[in-house]
Specification:
9 helices
C-alpha cells in the first residue's frame, strides 16, 4: 500500500507537469497545484521509514540488542532506542505541523474570511523592518509554526489563536490529531 501511495503521487506529479507544462508555471493556479504535489512528495519519508525498519537499520538494531544482552544492559539499550524513536517521530510530526502552519501564514490572504490571520497577529506583535522581504522571514515563520505545532499537539493551547475560519478548522483537526497521538 505504501508503494502504491508513493507511486500515485509521482504519477500525479508527472500528469500535472504534462498538463501545466514548464512554460505555464507563471500561472498562479498551476503554481498552487505544483506546490501541493511537492508537499505530498514529502510523505515519501513513510516509505523510507518502512525500508529502514525492514532493512539495514533493523539489522544494526538487532546486533546492538544482542551485544547489549551479552553485557547485561539490554533493557537500558532497548529503552534508549525506543525513546530515540519516539523523539524522532514527535519531532517529525511537529515538523509536518509546522510546515502546514507555514502554508497558512504564507498564503494568509487566500484563507481569511475575517481580514485577520496568524500572519497579521504575529506581525502586530513583532516589529519587522520594511526593508526585510517576506522570504527572509521564512526561518522565523518556521520556528513560530514549530512552536504552534508543539503547543497545539501537547497542551492543546497556544498563544497563537486562530484568526479566521480556515485556521480554526485546521487547529481543531490538528489538536484532535495531537490528542489521539498523545493518548496512544
Amino acid at each position: 500500500f505504501i508503494d502504491l501511495a508513493v507511486v500515485s503521487v509521482d504519477w500525479l506529479a508527472i500528469g500535472l507537469s504534462t498538463i501545466v507544462g514548464p512554460a505555464d508555471t507563471n500561472n498562479g493556479d498551476a503554481k498552487k497545484y505544483i506546490k501541493v504535489v511537492r508537499f505530498l512528495k514529502a510523505f515519501r519519508i513513510v516509505r523510507v521509514l518502512a525500508v529502514l525498519r525492514s532493512g539495514r537499520f533493523a539489522q544494526v538494531q538487532e546486533a546492538v540488542v544482542r551485544r547489549a544482552t551479552v553485557l547485561g544492559i539490554n533493557l537500558q539499550i532497548q529503552f534508549a532506542m525506543g525513546l530515540t524513536k519516539l523523539v524522532f517521530v514527535i519531532l517529525w510530526l511537529n515538523h509536518l505541523g509546522s510546515c502546514l502552519w507555514w502554508v497558512f501564514v504564507r498564503n494568509y490572504k487566500a484563507f481569511t474570511n475575517t481580514q485577520n490571520s496568524w500572519h497579521d497577529l504575529i506581525l502586530a506583535v513583532v516589529e519587522v523592518p520594511e526593508s526585510v522581504s517576506h522570504s527572509e522571514l521564512d526561518g522565523f515563520w518556521y520556528v513560530s509554526g514549530f512552536y504552534w505545532s508543539i503547543t497545539a499537539m501537547f497542551s492543546c493551547a497556544s498563544v497563537l489563536q486562530p484568526q479566521n475560519y480556515a485556521e480554526t478548522v485546521f487547529s481543531i483537526v490538528y489538536i484532535i490529531f495531537g490528542m489521539l497521538f498523545g493518548s496512544s
